[in-house]
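EI: anyone free to look at a 262-residue chain?
SC: sure, send it
EI:
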Amino acid sequence: MFLLFRWAFAILPREQWQILAVLPQHRAASNQWHGLNLTYYGFITASAVTLAVGNMLFLLGAIHIPLSTSLWFVLSLMCLTVPASKIIANVVEKKVFTFTIGGASFTGLVMAPVVAVVINRMHHPSDALPILPVLSALVISFALGEGIGRLACISYGCCYGKPLSACAPIMQTLFKTLHFRFTGATKKIAYAGNLESIPVVPIQAITAIISTTVYLIGMGLFLTGRVASGLFVSLLITQVWRAVSEPWRADHRGHGSISMYQ
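SC: here you go
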């Protein structure tokens, strides 16, 4: 993870690390084509989800839960969280083409116990999901997905931090050499925040490091039998950080000192 982050933090803010490929759709005038952009954001997000789900299946397998039951739980939960990421963003931000990980994770945390209970009623008691270990595995795996997924935000230039010039002197000193400079007119930080090539707080990198560290701690607790501690530590730190990190973000989080996401 250290090697991955060292590489990603250095190159993903660059302009060429936003568009992965383009699928041509139809020819336009003057020998031009309309195409569908495939972004590194999408690739990294898909990779993060895949690794998080795989990690959860591993943890549930470690406590002898049948793979079929684990898959039922994961797929049922994703049927709720994936639409929620768009619906909640639409309600909160009033934007049609926006998704929010915060909305998806909130829905997942609230609905996970309900989904587990419903699945248990459909299965034989010997295949029942133990609620506490399942929730612990879910939140620990979420921390992994959140950590890797933040690399997607660096690539796309979204969820960006405040310019250092607008921060307190201690923040300017702390991030004098550890800031991000995003390049590329199609990065969100450029067209939405007018902050291209301006030093900003590397909030995505900080979140990636914190979330991944929480994941490693949670894994250690889970695999040594302390599933409740793994749940508590992972849930507390990831969600508290999500709330307290917003003052260092410059992207629009709504009007007022406390945002709807907080």
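EI: Residues 67-93 form the longest helix (27 residues).
SC: 👍
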